[in-house]
Specification:
The protein is 16% helix and 33% strand. It has 167 residues and is an alpha+beta fold.
C-alpha cells in the first residue's frame, strides 16, 4: 500500500460529516394538516401531557404548538419543561426522543418539525417487600419539606419550520 493511500485511509474518518442525531423513536411524517385545524402531535402519558399543533395561516407565525394537560386526575411521573430554560443537549444527559414532521396541506413544501427531548432519571424507585414502588403521604411531606424530592424524567420540545413558504 502506498503512503498516499495509507494517509487517505487515516484522514477519511476525520473528513466524514458528523452523524445526525438519531431519535429514540422512529416514525414517518404525519399526514398533511390544513390551516386552522388543531391536531395532536404526540401524547406523553407519564407527563400527563399532549402536544397539540395548528397551522395558523399567518405569515409571521405560520405554526403554533402547545403542551396540554390530558386530565386533572392524572398523576404525573414526569414533567414537561420549557425548552429555552432547560436547553437540552446530549452533553447534559438529554436524549433526542422523537422528531415529529407535519406537512402543511396548502403548502406541501413547508413542514413543522417538533423535536422532543427526554432527560431520563438515573435512579430506580425503591421497591417494597411486594415489589411495588409506593409513595406514603407523610414521607412525601417530609421529603418536600427537606427539599429532597425524588427526581423525575423531564421532557422538552422545540419547534422549527422547514422548507419553503408558499405565497
Amino acid at each position: 500500500m502506498s503512503p498516499r493511500s495509507l494517509l487517505s485511509l487515516v484522514l477519511l474518518p476525520l473528513a466524514a460529516p458528523v452523524a445526525a442525531q438519531v431519535p429514540e423513536m422512529q416514525r414517518p411524517a404525519a399526514s398533511a394538516q390544513a390551516d386552522g385545524v388543531v391536531h395532536t402531535l404526540r401524547q406523553i402519558p407519564e407527563a400527563c401531557a399532549r402536544l397539540e399543533g395548528v397551522f395558523t395561516g399567518e405569515a409571521g407565525n405560520p405554526y403554533r404548538y402547545s403542551a396540554v394537560r390530558t386530565s386533572e386526575q392524572c398523576q404525573a411521573r414526569a414533567r414537561f419543561v420549557d425548552f429555552d430554560k432547560a436547553r437540552p443537549s446530549e452533553a447534559k444527559g438529554w436524549k433526542l426522543n422523537d422528531v415529529i414532521r407535519v406537512p402543511r396541506a396548502t403548502c406541501p413544501s413547508q413542514q413543522a418539525v417538533v423535536r422532543v427531548w427526554r432527560l431520563p432519571v438515573q435512579q430506580a424507585p425503591k421497591l417494597d417487600g411486594q415489589g411495588q414502588a409506593r409513595i406514603y403521604l407523610e414521607e412525601a411531606r417530609q421529603q418536600a419539606a427537606a427539599g429532597a424530592m425524588p427526581k423525575v424524567p423531564l421532557y422538552a420540545a422545540k419547534l422549527t419550520l422547514e422548507g419553503k413558504a408558499c405565497r
